[in-house]
Amino acid sequence: MPRALTARIARVVPNRQVVATLLNAHQSRSAQLGALYADADGARKEELASMTQRSAEGSMAPVFTTFYNQLRSVREYHRKFPSAPSTESAETTLIAAVLEAAPEVGFTGEEAEGRYVDMHALHEAYLNLKGCERIDYCTYLKQCSHLAALPKTTATSGAYARYSRELRDYLLSFLRRTQPLMPLNKLIEAAEADFEQRWQNGAVTRWQSSPPTEAAPAPAAVAASSATLDLGTYDSAAALEVLGLEVLKHELTRRGLKCGGTLQQRAERLYLAKTTPLAAMPKIHLAKPTPPPAPHANGAASGSASDGSAAGLADGSDAAGTAAAARGARAVALLEELVARLGELLADVLEESAMMVEKKQARTYDEIERDLMLAAQEDAMEVDEDEDEDAEEKPIYNPLNLPLGWDGKPIPYWLYKLHGLNLEFKCEICGNYSYWGPRPFERHFQEWRHAYGMKCLGIPNSKPFQGITLIEDAYTLWAKLKAEKGTTAFQADTEEEFEDGSGNVMTRKVYTDLARQGLLD
Ligand SMILES: [Zn+2]
C-alpha cells in the first residue's frame, strides 16, 4: 500500500539524516585523530624529545623533573578551570553538539518531508524553453528526466543548458536530502567516467554523429539510412526519389544544402551534390549559414560519404568556435546523461509525485485535508506500534472516530468511505436515532427500534411505511391508506359472511373450505 510505504519513508528520512550526520562527524573526527597520531605538527615528537633528551646523559632524574613539572601545570590548569565532565554526559553532549551543528535539511510543503518532489519552478522553466511541447505538470514529472527526447534545436540553446543544470541540481539536492546515506558522489563519478568513455568512442549519437534534426524522435530508419547514404550507388535523381522526403531532407541538411522543396526538387538537388563539390554549387542550393551546434561532428561523419563537401564546410568554419561548441555540446550531453541517471534513481518518487498531483486535482480541499490528517494518523499509529509492541492495553489512537472492526481496531478509512459510514441518517420514529451509512439505515426499518417506534404510533410496520422517518409523514400515509381501504370495493372472498346450520358465522372462504371437506351439515 503506497500510503503506508510513503509514511514509512517520511519517518526514515530524518533517521537517515541523523545517521549521515553522525557518520560524517565520525569521519572528520577520525581524520583529526589520524593527523594527531601521524604527528603532523611535530608536537608529539617535541614532547618525547623533551622527556628523553636528558635521560641520554645517564641520569633518570631529569625525566621525572620534567614529568612533575608538567603534572603540576596540568593540575594548576584544572584548579583554575574546574570542569570535569563525566564520560557519560560528555558522550551525550558530544552527540547533541554534532546534531545541532548539522545543517538543517528542509523540505518545501509540497515535498512533504521527502515523499514527493516539488518541481513547479523547473516546470515553468521547461515551458519557457523554445520548441518544447506544452505539457501539464503531471506529465512533466513523468518525463522530466528524459531530456534526450527534446528536439535538438531546443537542446542547443543556452536556456536549455541552464535549465538542465538546474534540473540536475534539484534532483541531486533531493537525493542528498532524502537519501543522505547513498554514495551519490561515487555513483556520479562512475556515470561521468562511463560517459567520458562513450564520448571518446563517439557513441553519444545525439550529440556526436547525427546532424541537427528538426525533431529528436526522428524515425530510426531515417537516421540509419542517411548515415550510410552513398550517392555513388544512385545513378539518377529519380532513383533518389524513392528514399522519400524525410531522408532526402536529412541528407541535404547534413551536406549543408537547402532541404525544402518537393520530392523531385530535393532529389535533383541531392543528385547534383554527387557530381558537384559544395564550393562549386550554385548559391541557390546552399542552406543559409546557421550556427551549427556541432559542425565538426558533421565533418567527421561525412568523411565516409562519397564526396568531402561537408568536410570542406567544416574546415572553413572557425576552428576555435568549433572547439568551444564541442565543449559546450559535451557539457550539455553530460548533463543530459546525469539527469537521466538521477531520474532512474528517483523513478519511484517521480511517479508517486505525479500520481499525487493527479489525485490532488481530482479532489476537493476538504478531501485533501482529511487525507493529510489521515496520513498523520497512520504515522502516529505506526510509531505507536513500533514503540510499544506489548502495550496492548493502550487506548487505540482514533481521532476520526472510525468504527471498530472485528479485531477491535478502527476499520480502514477506505472501507469506512466505501460503505458511506460518514453519512448520517436520522429517524424521528426511532426517537431521532442516528444511523451511519445507507445500509444500516435501510436495514433499520425492519429492526426492533423502528418497529417499536411504529407500534407506539399505532401504525403497522408494513411495507408502505418503508423509508418513512418522520412521524407526521407516517400518520399522513396511515390515514391515506385507511381511507383508501374504506373506499375499495367489497371483497367477497374475505368480507362476505356465511353462517352454517348451527349458527356459526364465518367468512366465505372458510365456509367453502369446510363445505368441500364435507364437514358442514
Ligand atoms: Zn426508524
Q: Class by helix and strand content?
A: mainly alpha
Largest sheet properties: 2 strands, antiparallel
Order of helices and strands: HHHHHHHHHHHHHHHHHHHHEEHHHHEEH
List ligands, each type once.
zinc ion
Average pLDDT, rounded to a whole number, is 74
Task: Give the C-alpha Rg.
Answer: 44 Å
Low-confidence stretches: 211-227, 290-317, 386-392
How many strands?
4
Could you name the key traits of this structure?
single chain, 521 residues, mainly alpha, 6 domains, two-stranded antiparallel ribbon, 60% helix, flat, binds zinc ion
Plain-language structure description:
It is a single chain. With 521 residues, the chain is mainly alpha-helical. It folds into 6 domains: 2-101, no CATH class; 120-206 and 341-359, no CATH class; 213-291, no CATH class; 363-413, no CATH class; 423-488, no CATH class; 490-521, no CATH class. It is 60% helix and 3% strand. It contains 25 helices and 4 strands. Strands 1-2 form a two-stranded antiparallel sheet. Strands 3-4 form a two-stranded antiparallel sheet. Strand 1 and strand 2 form a beta hairpin. Residues 211-227, 290-317 and 386-392 have low confidence and may be disordered. The site of zinc ion has 7 residues, from helix 22. Residues 427, 429-430, 444, 450, 453, 469 line the site of zinc ion.
List the helices and strands and how they pair.
Elements lengths: L1 H37 L4 H10 L8 H20 L6 H15 L18 H8 L9 H7 L8 H4 L2 H21 L5 H17 L4 H4 L11 H8 L9 H5 L3 H10 L8 H13 L19 H7 L7 H8 L2 H27 L1 H15 L3 H23 L25 H6 L5 E4 L5 E4 L1 H7 L3 H10 L13 H17 L4 H4 L1 E3 L5 E3 H9 L5
Helix pairs in contact: 1-19, 6-18, 8-17, 9-17, 11-13, 13-14, 15-16
The site of zinc ion (ZN) has 7 residues, from helix 22.
